[in-house]
Design brief:
By secondary structure, the chain is of the alpha/beta class. It is about 35% helix and about 15% strand. The protein has 13 helices and 13 strands. It has helices at about 5-10, 15-20, 25-30, 65-75, 85-100, 115-125, 140-145, 170-180, 235-240, 250-260, 260-285, 310-320, 345-355, and strands at about 35, 80-85, 105-110, 125-130, 150-155, 185, 210-215, 225-230, 290-295, 300-305, 320-325, 325, 335-340. The strands form three sheets. The chain has a seven-stranded mixed β-sheet, with helices on both faces. The chain has a four-stranded antiparallel β-sheet with strand order 9-10-13-12. Strands 1-11 form a two-stranded parallel sheet. Helix 8 (about 170-180) links the parallel strand 5 (about 150-155) and strand 6. The radius of gyration is 21 Å and the shape is globular. The termini are far apart.
Length: about 375
């Protein structure tokens, strides 16, 4: 292709897309490891057999069995559930339904999940940030001061990548200050690891509340790409106007329905127990490693920790085939790496690799180590 044609394509693209940095997913970042602990996936693939064979027909837009089973699981009415291609599509549908490009804004509180900003920027909607406080609680006065022009607020709880649950009184404060002004989307992608923290029971009280869910984490179906938005029926009806005609393929609906059966839910809960036990083991072992400066508590299937010379630690493990997620560029997370809870054998590999590495009082394993921050 000639330079002239290349320039023509670039000039035709929207300016914000030309300048956009796409979401750096674990798969985009890559790696050549055999211990993948960078995408908050479950380490062992569940086994399913397809029961549907109607691949010659378009699927239902909202497959009834999936909707009914998820509604029963979440304790809501079927009219309050929308199923989509992962929770990521739910994030984008909310922006498309409620935000005018070039006019409205979304608000989110870093450090948090990166797709809120990418989805907004792709659509041409301002992404406004109010940084979390040093203890990762919400800065409520700053949020209220920043709400002018905001149509949509995203709060991830438990929060990715920090692992903390946002306090109920803080969530209620945001819902109260946005009443009649903005939609509040609570991202509960990791809620199965702390089900007592869900806000789905608040829907009647807050008509502007939406809850985002997924089968990617505790259900061990990241490759399925199946997520849910839970909200009052009026909000769901608006999202139905902007969703794709056939968002869920027939095989995805088939497997999702099986995962949401009584047997599937029992297996998921066993999996959560196993992951939680492995997480507590990892937290204890990390605290014994010299190169670990700080370990943060977690209500999820991952752990965040701050390391001495974290970039060198990350590369050291990478070279041994252990792939973690570097969080250095997130606000307030200098020196931090995120570790997905894998099998006990995988986590033992992590600890074995970390134990020989020096700490802050030993000679650094690289010259330009990240600055240590205290929270």
């Amino acid at each position: 292709m000639s330079d002239e044609n290349t320039l023509s394509i670039q000039s035709l693209a929207r300016q914000n897309v030309r300048e956009l940095t796409p979401y750096q997913s674990a798969r985009r970042l890559g790696g050549n490891g055999d211990v993948w602990l960078n995408a908050n996936e479950y380490a062992i693939a569940p086994q399913f057999e397809l029961t549907a064979q109607t691949f010659n027909r378009y699927p239902e837009c909202q497959p009834a069995l999936v909707i009914n089973r998820y509604a029963a699981y979440a304790g809501v009415d079927p009219e309050q559930v929308l199923v989509s291609r992962g929770a990521d599509e739910g994030i984008e549908l909310l922006i498309r339904a409620f935000c005018e490009p070039g006019k409205d804004a979304i608000l989110y509180c870093p450090p948090t999940y990166g797709m809120y900003s990418v989805s907004a920027e792709t659509i041409g909607v301002e992404g406004r940030t109010v940084a979390a406080k040093a203890d990762w609680s919400l800065d409520l006065p700053a949020i209220e001061a920043a709400l002018d022009g905001v149509k949509l607020v995203y709060i991830c709880s438990p929060n990715n990548p920090t692992g903390n649950v946002i306090r109920p009184d803080e969530l209620r404060a945001v819902l109260d200050m946005t009443r009649g002004r903005a939609i509040v989307a609570i991202d509960e992608a990791y809620i199965e690891f702390c089900p007592q923290a869900t806000v789905t029971g608040w829907l009647q009280e807050y008509p502007h509340l939406a809850v985002l869910r997924t089968l990617s984490k505790a259900f061990a179906l990241a490759g399925l790409r199946c997520g849910f938005t839970i909200a009052n029926s009026e909000l769901i009806a608006l999202l139905m106007k902007v969703i794709a005609p056939y968002p869920l393929s027939t095989p995805v609906a088939d497997i999702a329905a099986q995962a949401l059966s009584p047997e599937g839910l029992a297996i998921m809960r066993q999996r959560v127990t196993e992951v939680t036990q492995n997480r507590e083991w990892l937290l204890a072992e990390l605290r014994k490693c010299d190169c670990v400066e700080q370990v943060f508590t977690s209500e999820t299937n991952y752990v965040l920790a701050r390391f001495t010379a974290s970039s060198a630690v990350f590369k050291n493990l990478w070279d041994q085939g252990i792939i973690l997620r570097d969080q250095n560029k997130q606000p307030g997370l200098s020196g931090c790496l995120r570790i997905t809870i894998g099998t006990r054998q995988e986590l033992q590999r992590v600890i074995d690799a970390l134990q020989p590495l020096p700490g802050a009082n030993a000679p650094l394993i690289q010259q330009n180590s990240p600055r240590k921050e205290h929270m």
